[in-house]
UniProtKB/TrEMBL annotation:
Single annotated GO MF: ATP binding
UniProt protein name: ABC transporter domain-containing protein
InterPro entries per record: AAA+_ATPase, ABC_transporter-like_ATP-bd, P-loop_NTPase
One Pfam match: ABC_tran
Length: 302
């Protein structure tokens, strides 16, 4: 089930085209990572999805409602942390949570206390947020984004400023949030975070989407990219057979086929291909890391 649909979004600042016709969809109950280098348009896209920036063209639908006509209604179910947290520095943690909660029409102090404790922030502390470290401010910002029990979280570089313990806390919280049937969209330039957290990955650069694929299947198994050397094989026939027996994402080049597949499923796929006369040897297979795949796509190398 789709919860977010982005339809042909265009955005420019002056002569700089930041987003060039972006379209994508996000499924319910998944953690989706927008992965790309700095300046690739990730933050701008998240701002548009969050209703903070108006696109030059295109539309965003959340739960089948258009941001152009139903923004206030949509944001009741969306939590947002874009760039620096919108913290009131003259207030303590609980004061910030109370304001954020009231802005969403809520007043659940127990919820606020629970979130602060989860992220190791003392709800009874009188220390003003101005005295917080960068990591503490980031943790408070995440708590504020979650205080109204949203169904969707939109987070821009959420690990910024977090130490190792804070990153683990964030990962565990987002995974529990997803397990409750909710949805997360994060922007990151860190491959390690995308691999650790994300079910689906969207590679983007220079305002366009390069690739979209599921990094984990519905059972939670991690997918891997396996390369098959097609030298000496009828490539057209090979692709026809693969398309008939497989729903896996794959990429075909002149002498190589790359398949995104769980390790446990690879043997079954090879068996099916062999049954169709496409004899494959183990020497024809190699594994490609997400890092290699990402760098190749971003650089434009096939």
């Amino acid at each position: 089930m789709e919860v977010i649909r982005v339809n042909n979004i265009l955005k420019s600042y002056g002569k700089c085209d930041v987003l060039k016709g972006i379209s994508l969809y996000v499924r319910k109950g998944r953690i989706v990572g927008l992965l790309g280098p700095n300046g690739s348009g990730k933050s701008t896209l998240l701002k548009i999805i969050s209703g903070l920036v108006i696109p030059d063209a295109g539309d965003v639908e959340i739960n089948k409602l258009s941001l152009r006509t139903d923004l206030n209604r949509i944001m009741e179910s969306v939590g947002v942390l874009i760039e620096e947290p919108g913290i009131y520095e003259y207030m303590n943690a609980m004061g910030n949570m109370n304001v954020s909660s009231m802005l969403h029409g809520k007043n659940d102090k127990q919820k606020s206390r629970k979130l602060l404790n989860r992220f190791e922030l003392d709800p009874d502390s009188k220390v003003k947020a101005a005295k917080y470290s960068t990591g503490m401010k980031q943790r408070l910002g995440i708590c504020m984004a979650m205080v109204h029990d949203p169904e969707i979280l939109i987070l821009d570089e959420p690990t910024n400023g977090l130490d190792a313990d804070g990153i683990v806390l964030l990962r565990n919280t987002l995974k529990r949030f997803k397990e409750d049937g909710n949805t997360v969209v994060i922007a990151t330039h860190l491959l390690s975070e995308a691999k650790e957290l994300c079910d689906d990955i969207v590679l983007n650069n220079t305002g366009v989407i390069l690739e979209e694929f599921s990094y984990r299947n519905n059972e939670g198994s991690e997918m891997e990219i396996h390369s098959i050397n097609l030298s000496g094989l009828d490539q057209r026939l090979f692709e026809e057979n693969l398309a008939q027996i497989s729903t896996y994402r794959y990429w075909l080049s002149s002498e190589r086929l790359e398949v995104l597949i769980a390790e446990s499923e690879l043997g079954k796929l090879v068996l099916k291909l062999n049954e169709r006369g496409m004899e494959l040897e183990s020497s024809q297979f190699s594994k490609i890391s997400l890092e290699e795949f990402y760098l190749r796509k971003v650089s434009g190398v096939q």
